[in-house]
Write a structure and sequence with these properties.
Elements lengths: L1 H36 L3 H12 L1 H34 L4 E5 L5 E5 L2 H11 L23 E7 L6 H9 L7 E6 L5 H7 L3 E5 L4 H13 L1 H4 L2 E5 L3 E3 L3 H9 L4 E4 L2 E4 L8 H25 L14 E5 H4 L13 H10 L4 E3 L5 E4 L5 H22 L5 H36 L1 H4 L4 H11 L2 H23 L3 H5 L3 H21 L16
Parallel strand pairs: 3-4, 3-6, 4-5, 8-11, 9-12
Antiparallel strand pairs: 1-2, 6-10, 7-12, 8-10
Helix pairs in contact: 1-2, 1-17, 2-17, 3-4, 3-10, 12-13, 13-19, 14-16, 14-17, 14-19
Length: 514
Amino acid sequence: MRTVRFIGGLLTGLIALALAVTLFVYWFGFATDMAAVSGLGTLGYLFLWLAFGANLLLWTFVGLLRLGDDSVRAMARRSRRDRALEESTPLRVLVGSGGGGTAVVESDEAERGEEARETAVEEGSPRAPEEDSAGGGPETISLAVIIPAHNEEPVISGAISSAMSLFNRWDIYVVSDSSKDSTAEIAARSGVNVLELLNNRGKAGAIEAVIEEFELTDDYDGVLILDADTELDAGYVEGARRQLADPSVAAVAGFVVSEWKPRERTFVGRMISAYRDRLYFMLQYLLRFGQTWRYANVSFIVPGFASVYRSRALKEIDVNPKGLVIEDFNMTFEVHHKRLGRVSMNPDTKAYSQDPFTLGDYYKQVSRWTLGFWQTVRRHRMWPSLFWVFLSLYILEVVLVSLLLLVTSVVGLFVLAGTVGGEPVLSLPFFGEVWTAVTAFLPLLAIGIGLFVPDYMLTCLMAAIRRRPSYLLYGLLFFPIRLVDAYLTLRMIPKAWTTESDGRWSSPDRGSAR
């Protein structure tokens, strides 16, 4: 059965990759022909920019530099370790033998010590880490787990079980923020620490409350904030501790993976998960991997779903300032603004997050995220830093792309209406003249190919990487979701400057208990 799955996945990947290459060749040929015939070939590259973005290309290149740098440093560390082992003199202990002679036993203590020190070096750290408070390596870094929750009865047990598989139960702290269901009772039955708040404070307020109540930043080296709908990968804790072994790291960003359980979702739910999977892959591998290189350190988000903050940095962070709808953008900006250290991210800190099940919940979630970003920009404003240089470039591109995407789509609908409606529509006052002028510059075919083909190429690549043929179907409907994202990006800009938020929870529609 495994062989059949492997072969099927391999064929799916090859077919999707071939489709992506075919679409690119077609798009490139179309753009070239337009340039030769009408001089409009530059529009094709504009559409490609709308799909990929200059920031994505820039940080993909930086990410490749980081990958090479990490590889060189890893080889250098192995070389130093091997050389140190060759030059070291093993301890010899003389042990009496039964025949009156002596036996020589060589201790491998030096080798074990060297390996422990090498393990303690973070993936690209320019300097050896200091030892933690326990005097040992990364495995001795103590971590507390905070699970803030509000009406999370369907999913809270999954998050707790996930945490208990990697932590002792007394290191797990669930804070039920005025839940009206059995969230607190389920947590209490599991034997973890539970704090129940009577007044709804929102996620940031709940995090602040549980840290203060249990004095977590005094008792632990770091604090992991875990969403109630998230489950940790088996290697998460090891990866987080390895990154925290570098004393310059203030926060470890979790590596989000969309939970893929198609049998538990409707068609719309599966489409949302597939879209999110593509989005997360691009943002993390092609953007944030480069942004979290030690020479850059300009990542603007430590996702709040499953991320770790060093305690000494967390003490300096204003977790719950007034007027913000979400906490993670603000906490990340605090790290940069107060120069508390750098943000680290590696694919070895994976966690599986549950995406919205309905379009309504998707709209609400993206609205909160986008509003939270712009509110954080408003709160912190600009300060002289490399962080703000690249954040400004990102903001500029996001706004321009969103605006052009929406305008081009409206133009496309206008052209489509004239094309499909024919003479009755074109004879309307001013409509025919405007339609003729627009189609001379932007024919319907150019708009359709320009908007759809580059975007669908990304979907084909994701289908190849994930080996999921269903993505080729769901990807046909991704473009409308991109339009929703673009609309909310622009819609929330003025709202961030006119609306004060209290950060209180709005419970989404959850799947069945896992």
